[in-house]
Amino acid sequence: MGAEQVLETLAGFKEYATGTLTVLELVGTFVFALSGAAAGVKHRLDLFGVLVVSCATATAGGITRDVLIGAIPPAALRDWRYLGVSVVAGLVVFFSSPRAERQQRLRNLVLTFDAAGLALFAVSGTQTALGYGLNPVMAALLGMLTGIGGGMLRDVLVSDIPAVLHSELYAVAALAGALVVVAGHALKAQPVASAMVGASVCFGIRVVAL
């Protein structure tokens, strides 16, 4: 009976991963790419530079997670849609944002999109880790790492101090969202519901901190 339950759980995760989880990750990729592109425009990078920062920000956390859990090659390298949405986001921001004026508006865009990307990747990273059989503590930590990875690389590329090193409620917000997902998994809640609540908690904490 135990083996049957394990197989049923794995089958349910596979079905979820091919649908809702993929959508969740693609949305997270898009909003993180927007934050990366906005940071590039803020620092007056050219189009190529903006696209590089956009793609790196959008995929760094997910690639790190996949390498650590043995999902090789990482989803961002297997599925063209990850690169596609990152490039689209970069182009949208580059051609729609002012180049010299309204720097405060660009800063606000970076922070808002970063908070959304942090939330989405924290919960998707946690759910992916749980699907690969990691224990709840490690799954939550990996979810947090997935969330903060893109923002850290973005800040390094544009020569800023990573937010996780000077903002107390950055990694903490990601961990809080991840823990909600872990709790939902333990209570056998619907993955979609756990993801929505976890993302809302993470996003809310981060926005309040800002």
Give a description of the structure.
The chain has 210 residues and is mainly alpha-helical. 84% of the residues lie in helices and 0% in strands. The chain has helices at 2-17, 20-42, 47-69, 75-78, 80-96, 103-131, 136-157, 163-166, 168-186, 191-209. Helix 9 packs antiparallel against helix 10 (191-209). The radius of gyration is 17 Å and the shape is globular. The termini are far apart. 50% of the residues are buried. The model is unreliable at 13-17 (pLDDT under 50).
Mean pLDDT: 83
Element order: H for helix, E for strand: HHHHHHHHHH
Number of helices: 10
Q: Give me the count of strands.
A: 0
> Termini separation (Å)?
49 Å
- Gyration radius, to the nearest Å? 17 Å
The oligomeric state of the chains shown is single chain
Relative helix content: over 70%
Strand share of the residues? under 5%
Largest sheet: none
The chain-level structural class is mainly alpha
Stretches with pLDDT under 50, minimum 5 residues: 13-17
How would you concisely characterize the structure shown here?
With 210 residues, the chain is mostly helical. Helices cover 84% and strands 0% of the residues. The radius of gyration is 17 Å and the shape is globular.
